[in-house]
Amino acid sequence: MKFSVKVQYGLQAMIELASNYGSGQVQIADIAKEQKVPIRYLEQLLLILKREGLIASTRGKEGGYTLIKHPGDVTILEIVETLDGPIQLADKKMKKIPFIFEAFERVQGKMREDLAGISLEDLVTRQRQKEKVLVYSI
């Protein structure tokens, strides 16, 4: 299974918003520049994330985007399924061979569990730790 570019860019945008959580609005141009995501594509993704209640936006000169929930309360699974739909490894057609269906269903459950166990806050923490290592190794 491979996650789409939509998920990758969406996660990058959400990480940027999580990094700035509590610091006010983040403008779309800043997200695009910092995360190296095409702004036109980012606009579409942010609309989806907003419609699904993960982010909020404010118009105007001082406007931008913010997370609605604390980064610790937003899971990677929530973002993946918002952008790509439910993770689906076990297909109904596989039910013809029950042991294959059960194996894929088990893997699917484990994947969902693992993604639900990682929050945006976890990713931001990992990102900051990696940046510290890079800064101190100079």
Q: What report would you give on this structure?
A:
The chain is mainly alpha-helical and 138 residues long. The chain has one domain: Winged helix-like DNA-binding domain superfamily/Winged helix DNA-binding domain (Arc Repressor Mutant, subunit A, Orthogonal Bundle). It is 59% helix and 6% strand. The protein has 6 helices and 2 strands; from the N terminus they run αααββααα. It has a two-stranded antiparallel sheet. Helix 1 crosses helix 6 (120-136). The N and C termini lie far apart (38 Å). The mean pLDDT is 90.
Features:
single chain; 138 residues; mainly alpha; Arc Repressor Mutant, subunit A; two-stranded antiparallel ribbon; 6 helices; 2 strands
Topology diagram in text:
Layout lengths: L4 H15 L8 H8 L3 H13 L3 E4 L5 E4 L8 H9 L13 H19 L3 H17 L2
Antiparallel strand pairs: 1-2
Structural class computed from helices and strand pairing: mainly alpha
User: Which overall shape is indicated by the principal axes computed on the Cα atoms?
Assistant: elongated
Number of strands: 2
Number of structural domains = 1
What can be said about the biggest beta sheet?
2 strands, antiparallel
Q: What number is the mean pLDDT?
A: 90
Name the poorly predicted regions: none
Euclidean distance between termini CA atoms = 38 Å
How large is the share of residues in beta strands? 5-15%
CATH architecture: Orthogonal Bundle
| Name of the level-1 CATH class | Mainly Alpha
Radius of gyration over C-alpha positions, nearest whole angstrom: 17 Å
